[in-house]
Amino acid sequence: MTKENKSKQKIINIATKMFAEKGVDKVSVRDILREINGASGMFYYYFKSKEDLYKATVQQFIDKTISKKRQIIFDDDLSLREKLYFIYKAVIKDYEQFSKNYILKDEFNFNKESYFLPIFYKMLETLSLDLKVMFNKAIDNNEINLDMSVDTFVDFMTYGIWGVLYNNLSILSEDNIKKNEEKVKKIFTLVFSLLNDENHSI
């Protein structure tokens, strides 16, 4: 990583930490610069605004969630049951973190739904392809039985889960978050029931 990229990454990392601790609306560009002992010119060399920096922290969060789930999916030392369990835990943890740290009210003047949707769809496309490889391998290993094609099953699973969790981002409340997590648990419970072993619970 070049010195320039390191400087930009440092700002993103500090902003991510401060947004999580205080909330996006409570952190100013000046606060971030004070934390890293930087000048305003340094900030505006990399980012047009605090909104631009916020978007960079969101993209980094999404990239990390994809990487984390891909590590689980392609871990050959894990059984399908173990992979599904760890994916379920990661999905819930990421959702709670996203809901706490990245959901905004009206601080920035941009359409949150139209901003987030393309990012989520790109994430789902990546994970869907990987999950299809995982389930095809699991079928070959007799770990699961499916009455439909793997493509249909994975699309139902992935788009169903993220549709439940990330629909209507602007009206998420603590009560809605818990209800959404219960719905996702039911989807995973259904998937676990298809495994070729005696334990059908998460």
UniProtKB/TrEMBL annotation:
The family database entries (InterPro entries) matched by this protein are listed as: Homeodomain-like_sf, HTH-type_Tx_Regulator, HTH_TetR
User: Which keywords accompany this UniProt record?
Assistant: DNA-binding
* One of the Pfam families matching this protein, by short name: TetR_N
Task: Kindly indicate which segments of the sequence are annotated as binding DNA.
Answer: 28-47
Task: List, in alphabetical order, the Gene Ontology terms for molecular function in this entry.
Answer: DNA binding
Keyword Mitochondrion among UniProt keywords: no
Ranges in a coiled coil: none
What the entry lists under Gene3D superfamilies is as follows:
Tetracycline Repressor, domain 2 (1.10.357.10)
The question of whether Transcription is a record keyword is answered with: no
Where is the HTH tetR-type domain positioned along the sequence?
5-65
- Signal sequence: where? none
The protein's matches in PROSITE patterns, at most eight in alphabetical order, are given as: HTH_TETR_2
List the protein's name.
Answer: TetR/AcrR family transcriptional regulator
